[in-house]
Amino acid sequence: xxxxxxxxTHAHADGHDAAHGPTDADVRxxxxxxxxxxxxxxxxxxxxxxVVFLVALLGVGMMYLAAHxxxxxxxxxxxDHKIAAAADRARLASQDAMSAxxxxxxxxxxxxxxx
Length: 115
Prior knowledge:
By secondary structure, this protein is mostly helical. The chain is built from three helices and no strands.
């Protein structure tokens, strides 16, 4: 019989026959070892996952807007318009806050400005 014959059996030290394959215990141990190795190899990065999720959500939103408006150009115009409107509101709010801060400073200092 040649040395490479697959029918040739070899007994292992643990008593099972190599021709019949691994035992259920061998499979369970190998499975658990593989799970531990994979868990150790792939460490979680929650912040990176959140950033990727938000970028994907933004992409889905842009795809929806492009489909709703009929083209990416018109969808981009809608986004640009909304961003400009939000920037105007933020500018007005910051001016109001600056005015309120100056009024409060004048009330505290008794009407004189230190600048």
